[in-house]
Amino acid sequence: MPTAPGTFKAPWAPKRTKQDRERSNDKERRKRHPWRGWYKLAAWKKIRARRLASDPLCVMCLAEGKTTAATVVDHIEPHRGNRDLFFSYANTQSLCEAHHNRDKQRIEANGETQSPSPRPKPEPNFHF
Ligand SMILES: [Zn+2]
């Protein structure tokens, strides 16, 4: 005897999942910052591997007399989406995570970002 199928949902029916939304967010980000995808390219991976092989230590730590393994390959001159700067081996340096993050903050503090937006200051006389 046949059983009622009930509410059958085709597994191939289009369904908007969280993953889909994240994917479209990625697409948006790629449109605004196409260079983000360059980090996945073989050309960059080659530059990165070569830089870490030749300078396995963080150059900024070395300048401070410390020896720290480099984990990040940084662009010395911010590439700002400039392909030549991005894929220039000479424009890269080995950094540790801490120095890389510090460097980024310095750049933001100097207003060297593409769209400097002043952060809203807290109310001067705001107390709990
Ligand atoms: Zn360092």
TrEMBL record:
The keyword Lyase does not apply. One of its GO terms (molecular function) is endonuclease activity. Keywords: Endonuclease, Hydrolase, Nuclease. Residues 17-28, 100-109 have a biased composition (Basic and acidic residues). Residues 46-101 form the HNH nuclease domain. SMART domains: HNHc. InterPro entries: HNH_nuc (IPR003615). Residues 1-33, 100-128 are annotated as: Disordered. This is HNH endonuclease. It comes from Cohaesibacter marisflavi. The lineage of its organism: Bacteria, Pseudomonadati, Pseudomonadota, Alphaproteobacteria, Hyphomicrobiales.
